[in-house]
Structure formats: structure tokens, C-alpha cells
Amino acid sequence: MILDAIRPQYGICILDPMTERVQTTMMSLRDSGYHPEHFTNYEALLDYLGQNPPHLILFNRSDEQHKIQDLMLELRAILPETHFVVLSTASGVGAVWREWGEFIYDCIMFPPVHTSQLVKAIDRAAERDAWMYRSEGVLQGLQTSPPEKIEATEVVLGDAVRGGVEGGPENSINSFHDKAHSSQFWERQDKDLESSQFLEQVLNQATSGTSKSFVEANALDSTSPELLQKSSCFDLSHYWKDLNQQSQVDTIISTALLHMSEVSSQAQGVFLRYLPHRRCLVISCAHKFSQEQWHGLGLNLIEEAEFKTRDLLNPEKIIGLKEMAQTLVQHERFWTQPFKLGESVYGLFMLFKDEKELDVEGLQILLKMAEDRAHLLESKRHLHSVETRDNATLLLQQGHLVSRLRVEVARARRILRPVSFLIISMDQSKNINEIYGYEELQLTLRALGKIIGTRSRVNDILGRVGSDELGLILPHTPIQGASTKAERLRRLIEAANFSKLLPKIPQLTISVGISEYPGNCRDGDELFSHADDALWQIKNKEKNKICLYSPKPGFEPDFLTPL
After folding, report:
1. Which of 149, 152, 329, 379 falls between 20 and 30 A from 394, CA-CA?
2. How far does the chain reach from its first CA to its final CA, in angstroms?
3. For 535-556, how does the pLDDT look when each residue is reduced to its tens digit (9 = 90+)?
């Protein structure tokens, strides 16, 4: 990964009321290739974030410390993937982690000993993010050449609740089943890419001034999709650019709804999200309506005795839509079309205007473009998940968990804070495999991961490390805190009743091996192996216990942590 290529694209915002204090920081970052933006007040920063969400925000610890936490809470709601980094004097580092440890990505001593210290700290965050999203490069390759058909396995959530955990804090566990994921995914991608390539041709023509309408764009290629054979007078370029700026399916939908309304003489419109497990349609966004008019409105399809899921492809069969139109606009004239994501219907678009007054062909084109963009985003998400997640448990694969462990150890060394690692083994795995089989063992391990995940902090990192083992990284946690966490999990699993999930094995127990950096190891690989050694020491004697790894005589830690 070449940092010179990453830095110009990595967005950094600095919030500090004192311009003089950040001049050196700004200069160092710019000299390294970054393009930081400085803001002296929160209001100016907030205005900027609406158009240019950054990858990282730097705060300077000042006299108004109590305000920073409130800012982080507000920013976290609108920027869930942005890193927060606090600049602090050496004496204030401990206080920063105590007060804001759950919100921040890192704390860097300021002023730094050398200007490169700050740059290298940000380089690590930038490079980490770039590798996390490297699957986008794979998709770029798919767009330029036909994808090779491969077979993969996708794990999906079952419709019915198969088992429960009674007597403990968790009262139910959803069942899961494996579903073969064939080459149909890639065949659909081939088809969608052909359509996308045509739309890109239209965009290039539109932005170059040689074509401004669907009529002229249609003449570009005699092999255009049938959808584009009829004319419309809407300029594609602005819409296409708006879609490509969206990174979530819901924002794609709201963008499409806005443009559909524009080409329909500002017609009122809504999008109804389909919730299959509840069998209902709920309005998730609206245009030309106040929130009071549409918020909370939906349609319970269970009450329609003749309703089948396939009826979403032909919305005119859904009787309740007319009643909804009457409620919203006091008339029953409307145009509606399903919005498909892959092979399933994600929801319905509704424009409240007589279909005879609408350019239906143009609206269909806008809809198809939105579907293509949404499908591409889901393809990226799927590829990234396949690369990093274990199919059976949906947790991080062992290789990626170990990589994260190394990153956390490097950060712990930099900020002088401990990190602990737990390996959690299911004691009854052999019996489950013999009685129920391998598939049921995978299901049970996934349920166990779900319980542990819901009882962990946001910044804890959970993954799979063996056939019946899970690994849990606990940043900023000494071995004493890790042992307390492990004991709580052990008691939770021991007290739970798994009889509905495993009728012949009603009780599960776990054994846990624990290690800590810097207390008993030098790096991430040793942190992993020491936790594994501790686990097997206890499993060879008795189960349903936790074991802490003890350093060898003469071991000296990299730094001392407060008790």
C-alpha cells in the first residue's frame, strides 16, 4: 500500500479554536501530502461535514473539555465510520482515556517530540482504512472484464426461531441455515454491468455536451436495454452523479425519490420499505410531505388474506395502497413500482399523480439506475464480508482477527495502554458434534458468538479462531479487567438453558484462556499463543474455568501499567 497515493484522498478535519496552535500541525500534514481542514468552531465544522464527511477528526484537549464528549456523541450519530483522535499533553493522556476512551480511536501527545510523530500516527489509521476497503479494487476489475463464475457459501437468517436460552439474560436465539450461493449472483452482476456500462456511455455523452436527453442517448447504441428505447426529456448527468455520491441503499432511495418527483412536476411521493418478517410496508422516506403527515404510517399485509410476497412485483394487487393514498392525499390516483435489490423486493415507490400525466418510461429508467447503484453497493459489501468474515458465524476470520490483534498491540505500545486477549472454547463441542453433527455445532457456535457480542463493548473485537473457539480482543484492558469479563461470560453461559436449541445437551459451559500485553508478551503473535497456552492448560485438567497466562521468570514488560 503506497501512502503517497492514500494521503491526498484521506479527509482530515481539525477542530481547535486557537489558529496559532495548529499551524505547525497543518503544515506537517500538508507537507506529507494530506489536505487537512481547520475549523475554529463546531458550527463551521458541522456545515462542512454535510458535504465532505472526513475519515478522521482531530480534537485538541482544551479548557472546555466537558464539551468534547457532547460533540463526539453528536458526531458519532452522523459519522459512524469517522475516527476521533484527541491531541493532548503527556500529563493529560491518562485523563483522556478515562473520560473519552469509548469514543476515540487514538490519543496523540501534543506537541509531538518530532513533527513526523503525528504524521505517522495518522498514516497508520489511513493505511488501515484503505486495506479495509480494498475490495473496491476487486469490483473495479469486475467492471472491465467478465467476472469469473465461482461458488461461495452464504449464511442467512432463518425465518423461524428454532431455539432459546432460558434462565439467562438472553431469552432467545434465532436459528440459522446454510444456503448455497451459486453463480447466479455473478450472472446477475454481468447483466447489471452491461446496463451500467450503457448508462456510463449516456453520462459521458451528456457531460460532453453531445447529448442531453434520453432521446439522443438512445441513439448511441443499438443494443441499448429495452427500457431505454422510448424517449424522455430528463437530463441524466445530474441524477447519475447524485447516485454515485451515495454510499447507502436508503440514501440512494431518497435521491431517486427526489428526482422522480422533479420529472413529474414536483409530484408528492413516498417510499414504502418492505419488512418481510413482519409482513408489512412502512414509509421510510417521503417528498413534499411534512414528517407529521407520513411518520409512522404503514400497511399491515397480514390483514390482506390473499397477499403473497410475489404480489409486490404487481403492487396494483395490494388493496391497502389505495387506502393509504386516500389518507395521505385524499385521492386514489397514484403510480407505484417495486424497487428490487437482487432477486428480492426491497420496497415500493409511490408517486401520487395520475399515471397518464407521468412520463412512465423516464421514471422506469430512473428506477433502473437506482437499482443498479444499490446492487453495486451490496456487491461491494458482500465481497468485503466474504473476504473478512467466517461463513458459519459471520464473525471475523482467524487471519483477520490476528491482524487486528497486531494493530491493537502496536497502538497499545504507542499510547502506553494495555490490551488483553481471550480465547473462549465451548466445552461440549465434541458431544454436540457426535450427537447432532457438524452443522448443529456451527449453529451453536454462532449463537454463542451472538451472546458474547451483545455483552461486549463497541470497541471490543470478536472473531473465530478454531472449530469450537472464539477470540475476543479487549483494547485498553489489563489482565485483571479481562479476567472479570471472562468470569461474567462463563457464569452467563453456565446459567443459561439451551434445552430448546440442544434438547440432549441442555447446559453449555466455556473455558477461557487469557493473556495481556505488555504484562506477559512482546507482540500480537505472542499475545495469541499465550492465551491459547493458558486455555489448554485448564482444559487438560478441568473445564468450565478461566486461566490467566503467567509470564516466565525474568520477563520484563515494554512498559508498566497502573493497577
Report:
1. 149
2. 39
3. 988 888 888 999 999 988 888 8
